[in-house]
Here is the input.
Amino acid sequence: MWLALGASAVYAQSAAPTAAAPQANAPASSASPGNAAQQQSVLHWLERLHMATRNRSYTGTFVFSNGTEIASSKIWHVCDGRQQLERIEALTGAPRITMRRNDEVAIFFPVQKLVHKDRRDALRQFPDWLRPTNPRIDSFYSVRVVGSERVAGLEATVVDFVAADGLRFGYRVWSEQRTGLMLKMQTRSPQGRVLEQVAFTELQLDAPVRLELLARQFEQTNGYRIVHSVQRPSTALDQRWRMRHDVPGFQPMVFNLRQDPNAAPIAQWVFSDGLASVSLFIETFNPQRHTRESVQAEGATHSLTRRVGDHWVTAMGEVPPETLLLHIQALERLR
Here is the structure.
């Protein structure tokens, strides 16, 4: 998935609506509210956050936490407006280096001398939010500037993205005032509880990161065993699936088939409302493996499994479990 935000998005090779509670947008500490000119649209802020990583290089250290896990990583990022390269080195846990070139991802495991190569399915990755794809996103989120704070020694504007219903979480974002770069982000429950957080602890903007050096590192696989993700694009219709009705705000994005030579293929259908995303993993039901339906949670990421006819469906995303259930209930096999 991704579907978790931050470096874990790459590492993982991851009901009636209710109004969001006011507590979710408690003012930031030592902050003063923005004036009317600052209260821009959701699309405006997402575009600003997205463009902040273009034509800019930086290095820094960021920390991800979700209540049960704390992980830190070092990042080197460079973009010339056309090509974007990135190196993320895990500073905690097993040694691991994630290299990204545009939508190509290579994860190096130095101890095992192993490289996993794949395409990035995540819709966003800290500190970059991809260009918003849902023009109706303002129907499902509102935005409010709540003040300013310092993060990693830099002045940031604090912005709340408030969910319009109970089908999605809210977000609080710290955007560097000069460049717009995201310095910190929290995923928040409707009650205002922080479910996940990712933040820079130190950051050097406009650092002398060389694009050609990162490009060489991406290709340096001598002595490593390379494992390629075996997947091919498809469509829900070709695989005889459809949604009986939409889950409010969530649009179908991509449909891929992941093929393991030793197992039946697994289909992945991705939906997004422009911020949150949901993946449906669909495989043939196996009574020996698929023994119990379940709901699990880790930080903001929930997963839910259900049997749908002759298939087993795992829904996963940074959304409430009710949203996952609505996706599964809407899923229908075509004859």
